[in-house]
Design the sequence.
């Protein structure tokens, strides 16, 4: 159980880091091209959410395979673990997005 908790915490911070780092470097690129960095950060953060999930989980094929194995073998523990990993990755990505939204002073519409 301790290893699962460690993995969940790592997934949160990895996906949050992908959002924050990707948007930071993307906004530097926006400055070089003459665009508004604040607007570019929010736009990039929205686009990077799915990639932050994939990066935090280390690729989606292992997760899909584990879910398939869990369903076919009626192993609900395996399925629950994979769902928790996906949710923790989403939590980190969305937290990074909300942090950028707060810093940039934008709205989510």
Sequence:
């Amino acid at each position: 159980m301790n290893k699962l908790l460690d993995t969940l915490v790592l997934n949160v911070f990895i996906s949050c880091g992908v959002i924050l780092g990707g948007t930071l470097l993307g906004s530097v690129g926006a400055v070089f091209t003459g665009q508004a960095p604040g607007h570019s950060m929010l736009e990039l953060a929205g686009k990077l959410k799915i990639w932050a999930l994939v990066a935090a989980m280390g690729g989606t094929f292992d997760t899909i395979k584990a879910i398939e194995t869990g369903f076919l073998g009626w192993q609900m523990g395996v399925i629950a673990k994979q769902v928790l990993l996906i949710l923790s990755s989403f939590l980190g990505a969305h937290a990074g997005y909300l942090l950028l939204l707060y810093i940039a002073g934008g709205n989510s519409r």
